[in-house]
Fold this sequence. Notes:
With about 180 residues, the protein is of the alpha+beta class. The protein has two domains: about 45 residues, no CATH class; about 120 residues, minor pseudopilin epsh domain (minor pseudopilin epsh fold). Helices cover about 35% and strands about 30% of the residues. The strands form two sheets. Strands 1, 2, 3, 4 and 7 form a five-stranded antiparallel beta sheet that branches. A five-stranded antiparallel beta sheet has the order 6-5-8-9-10, covered by helices on one side. β1 and β2 form a beta hairpin. The longest helix is centred in the middle third of the chain and has 26 residues.
Amino acid sequence: MLLTRFLLSDKIQVRALKRRRGFTLIEMLVVLLIMGLFVGLVTTITQPDDRALLHMESERLARLLDLAATKSHLTGKPVAWSADAASYRFWQFNEDTSWTEISDDDTLRARALPAGMKISSLTIENMRSPEQMRLEFTPYGQTNSFGVEMSLGTERSTIAGSPIGDIYVVPKQEKKQ
């Protein structure tokens, strides 16, 4: 008798579970709303601010300038970097005594800066470049010290090159209040 009652109640529960296999429309809408809020929050959090974006682009340019200097030493040919306010490109000196833009190397390809970011100035041996922003890496001899200043909004970043060939982003000094 007890076993019969247990089996009967078990059958009722199985029937109730068979009837309710899916989700209701309201349950689905609530899940979609929660997922939408979560995706919106994650998207907002993961977008870099001006300082982070500028630092990332400065690090990229520093690594590319270092790569250009290394390429010059390894190939025995001068490599140059030129820039305007919103973009930059790399050049290589050829046997026919002319400069051509590097187009066969995806790493040293021409690049445009993100919206609002610009290359503010170039100094070589502590003197501002008067005309065009152009920096040359020679395969032999000493490297000139240089500084490339980039800006985005109120943020500023400087890439420095030392006479011994080190190229790095100058650490930002914290302001004391």
